[in-house]
Amino acid sequence: MTALATPAFGPLPGLRILDTGRNNAGPWAASLAADFGAEVIHVEPLQGEIYRFDQSAWAQEKRNQRDLTLNLGNPQGREIFLQLCARADIWIESSIPGTYGRLGLTDEAVWKVNPKLVIVHVSGFGQTGHPDYVRRASYDMIGQAFGGLMFIQGLPEPNPPIAAKPYLCDYITGLWSLWSALAAYVSAQRTGKGQAIDISQYECMLRMLADTAINYFQNDEVKQRLGNRHPVAVPWDTYQSGDGVWFCINAASEPFSRLCRALGVDPDDERWSPQFEKCLSGMPGAVAFEAELRRWLQAHTAAEVEAILTVEYQVPCQRVYSIKDLADDPHCAARENFIEWDDPVWDRVKGVGIIPKFSATPGQVWRGAPGLGQDNAEILGALGYSPERVAELRAAGVIGEDYS
To answer: Please, which residues have CB within 8 angstroms of residue 53's CB and are 6 or more apart in sequence?
Structure first.
């Protein structure tokens, strides 16, 4: 097995990840790792996966990766897959539980060729549990709905619950997948034994519910939707300036007195003082103060709100940004949040840069998202297959055509 020509950079050079996941939930773990130097091979079916046809998302999330098309329904395809597992450190997959087992690619079968391999199984409901749930299909919104997060997002009843966009569940699941994969990899280097990790989308949401579970079990409280309001703190919501621009203002506790000075009102006004007794969400003091705040905002433009509240009085106050606002903001420019790189479809594409920023081993973009099967010949060549044998596998439908 020869090495693939991957530049050495970031904190993860030499780490080899095999990704057979679909869409975002598992593959985003591989995407993050690729930004920081890991060698990532993305395996997809011969016809390509549906995510590929969202060219913008593909360009953003598949950069720095190689692409192999492989027919796992073919015995020769499974043989190649096991060869890839033998050289990998981490395998990430996101199928309905049991899919790979039916192909003979169980965890145990894979560990026979690589006992140190870390296997990350990403699914909607987990690999075990109630049999009626395990094989259910899942997408981002399903994970948010079953995991309890969607119930508390949006405006109060009778308004419907709202899913957090874009694909919050998928992206959070990807973060869980990567950190757990790296933790298991560290363990495997110490013990010589890999392990399987069972990650469900709904449990990633469940773990994010903060005090929701304890308040239910200890206080019999079912948290309800509040919109952007805080359950106790005021002001803590979205508010509109006189020229129609939305702002988040979170100025409870210590910033409250600064906000009052900016508004020209007395923080000790009997209508809302003392703050922590009367100025609680939904209480008369809160209603009175927010009415005063809204009157002030309606008398000022967005530029004036920022100059007075954010800059002069240092109130936690932020205009709600669109992507255009972010692209035009000097702070984002100073931090190089948006960069350009080469891409086979767009030629040059501009998107989100490398996040977070490492002081000693920063990440980088060294190649654009690959075309369908673009790296078939290189990957199989590294496994020892001759060009003639690669052509035979292509003709037999084991691998697909190479599209760069």
So the answer is: none
Residue 268 a catalytic site member: no
| Cβ-based neighbours of 221, under 8 Å, separated by 6 or more | 215
Residue 280: per-residue pLDDT: 66
User: Burial of 160 by CB count in 10 Å (0-12 exposed, 13-18 middle, 19+ buried)?
Assistant: exposed
- pLDDT confidence tier of residue 282, bands split at 50, 70 and 90: confident
Quote the pLDDT of residue 313: 98
Q: Determine contact, residues 308/300, Cβ cutoff 8 Å.
A: yes
Q: Which residue has the tokens 């005063």?
A: 292
User: What is the full DSSP assignment across 277-319?
Assistant: HH-STTSHHHHHHHHHHHHHHHTS-HHHHIIIIIIIS---EEE
**Mean pLDDT over the full length of the chain:** 95
Tell me the residue length of the chain: 404
- Per-residue CA distances from 30 to 48, 112, 178, 225 (Å): 18, 24, 7, 34
Of 170, 237, 375, 402, catalytic: 170
- The string of DSSP codes covering 13-52 is TT-EEEE---TTTTHHHHHHHHHTT-EEEEEE-TT--GGG
Looking at residue 278, its pLDDT comes to 59
Say yes or no to pLDDT of 236 above 60: yes
What is the mean pLDDT of the segment spanning 205-215? 97
Kindly give the pairing relationship between strand 90-93 and strand 236-240.
unpaired
The answer on pLDDT for 62 being more than 90 is yes
How far is it, in rounded angstroms, from Cα 18 to Cα 197?
15
* pTM exceeding 0.90: yes
Pairwise CA distance, residues 139 & 134, whole Å:
14
Report the candidate in 241, 205, 236, 210 with the shortest Cα–Cα distance to residue 223. Answer: 210
CB atoms within 10 A of CB 257: 15
In order of their start, the domains of the chain are: 16-208+336-395 (3.40.50.10540), 236-319 (3.30.1540)
